[in-house]
Amino acid sequence: MKPVVRKPINDPVLSFFDDFLSQQLSRFEKPVKDVVPSVNIMENDKEVIIDVAAPGLSKKDFEISVENNLLTISAHKEMEDLEEGTNYIKKEFGYENFQRTFTIPEDIFDVENIKATYKNGVLEIVIPKREEQQKKVKKIQIS
User: Fold this and answer.
1) Which domain holds residue 99?
2) Structural element, H or E, at residue 24
3) Higher pLDDT, 143 or 112
4) Structural domain count of the chain
5) What is the pLDDT confidence band of residue 77, given thresholds at 50, 70 and 90?
6) Main-chain dihedrals φ then ψ at residue 43, nearest 5 degrees
């Protein structure tokens, strides 16, 4: 399917109505309010680390919970008060929401000791493995 290419309208009356209708129709567009941030998930012998890219937020905007083997990371941020006298022709952003859920079996992970930090736009969640699940290396003596 070829994209529709709009040709400029030379008639000033038709051009006015074209611009007016475009502005009126844009009022009915739904702005994107929910976004799903990208994540990096890393694993080593002792833990799993989930990094969530969430710039522009602060740690008070996040909520992290574990229930029924599900780790849920969510955030909600409302835009702060705008300067008085600011006139917008069109305003499509005002708050940001997201929610991501990950399965973390409690028989493998120590959910009581999950730690989270937020620094430089990245939320880092460290999920330690249970002691019995950590890979142990046994060195064997050569005789």
Assistant:
1) 31-79+94-133
2) helix 12-26
3) 112
4) 1
5) confident
6) -135, 140
126 burial type by CB count under 10 A (0-12 exposed, 13-18 middle, 19+ buried): middle
**What CATH number should be reported for the domain holding residue 57?**
2.60.40.790
How many CB atoms within 10 Å of residue 27? 7
Is residue 51 within 8 A of residue 39, CB to CB? The reply is yes
Question: Quick one: residue 132, left, alpha or beta (phi over 0 = left, psi -120 to 50 = alpha)?
Answer: alpha
Residue 19 has pLDDT above 70, yes or no: no
DSSP 120-139: TTEEEEEEEBPGGGS-----
d(CA 97, CA 54): 11
List the structure tokens of 34. 């929910």
- Whether residue 38 is contained in a domain is answered as yes
Instruction: Tell me the pLDDT tens digit for each residue of 28-48.
Output: 554 444 568 899 999 998 999
Q: Please name the residue that has the structure tokens 């599900």.
A: 70
Buried b (16+ CB within 10 A) or exposed e, 98-122: beeebebeeeebbbeebeeebeeee
Q: Find residue 95's DSSP bridge partners.
A: 78
Pairing between β-strand 95-103 and β-strand 115-119 as defined by DSSP bridges: unpaired
